[in-house]
Here is the input.
Amino acid sequence: MPKRLWLSPAMLATGAALLVAAQLAGAASERKGGIFKVGTTGASTQIDPQLAYVTTAWWLEYATAAKLYNYRPGGKIVPEVASRFVVSKDGSRYTFFLRKGFRFSDGTPVTAKNFKYAFDRVRSPDLASPGAQFVENVTGVSARGMKLVVKTKMRSGKLLAILAMPFFQATSTKLPLDREVTNVRSVSDLPSAGPYAFALNDVNRLTELRRNPYWTRGPGRTAPRNLDGLDLTWNMNEQTAFDMVKANQLDEGPIPSADVQGVATQYGVNRSRFWVNPTSTCIGMIGFNNSRGLFHDNVEMRKAVSWAIDRTDYSGDSFTRSPWTHLLPPGYPGSITKPRLQPYSPRANLAKARALAAGHFKDGRINAYYRSSGNGPAQAEVVRRGLVNLGFDPANITMRGFSGADLYDAIGKRGSDFDLAVSLGWCDDFVDPLQIDWFPFLPGGSMFPDSPLYRDKIAAVLRLRGNARTKAIGTLDLDIMRNLAPVAVTNTYNQLSFLSNRVDPRSLTFHRVYQDWSIPALALK
Here is the structure.
């Protein structure tokens, strides 16, 4: 399954998308009504359901969309518009039975044809939806009344997780098949069937959500709905938006890096106005070039570098990143979190690193690529220091910086001379409860060393089902990192939130999949 690589925690924090984010709410708030006001520094996102493909858009769509199956804030996937489904004996035909009672914000009832239309738009060559890559296994979709049939080439253990993506939500046939919907002036312009709907979208200025007037509680419709709506203002000056949150003129906004510690000191952490939540789908890492050069057929040196890097220094401040050492972050299904079982340590262990590296320096030269913007130079310096401490001659260490996404282009070129790459990140597109895919680290992936042994181990695990697979993947995760070390995982990311005094902290429920507060649960004092 294709995945997105992200460049920095700043992009994560602004919603550019493997740790369970705890549900932080206490007792539910009794307050109803009011508009939750958000300010952000970035340009607006797409809101067309078959085109929107960033975390911020999907966070909004969790409030507006109705899906066959959906994720609860804690990460559990549950039936929503679908009441149940059955699978044919050969596993190639999935029949979904839909509930009655869902209506779009223009009053139109939701039927199976609205889910078929979502597939039609995803597959439209003129629309060019990024969702098309996820349904290459689907051979046909048919709808009749409240019954939807999805045919596939082969049995798919991840189909429900795919259908829970916003691409495949109930979609009004009012939306054109061949072009994007951008400008919205009322809740009937872009009809949606969730508790809220887009009421205004003024590109790069303001996006508004308001209550879907036709949404009522019932089977599958159990979400809270406290707010009258949400206003999201785009392209704000960071300092201005921050000051407006402090003055309770905005309810959520950015925190300038220079102000993070001051905010934590003034308001405390996870008490009232400043909140730190681990994201659920992203890790940071140092990548090795396993196809040539120093790290090719050199597992001892890969493990040595993993011990030589000080992840605490690499992660920087304790709010935006947390040190981590293996592929599945804490809380992700199957991830093993006991400290004594971790493959590496938050602090460098040079004794272990030097013992592993002895005799494996090859010609003693190493080329390191890094991201030259943001925190990239600071992380590159931590890596360079670790390499020197490991035993590399400083004169033989070449550091080469690349701006932003150019780093990924550079390491992806055939014949690239990099040995390791600093400040890499990887994000999952959705949380797959069966964990069928394992990003670039599966055999054949760009960062997986050639290893028949581990190809066989992974194949054996992927033949398992349910809890047995989840547990086995967690064990294999540690095995791969200890004994194959395809990359050096460095950290997980945290989402920082700064809220106004108007927000009722009892209503705060962090959504582990969409990496922000659940909009339907939010309430004002």
Summary: The mean pLDDT is 88.
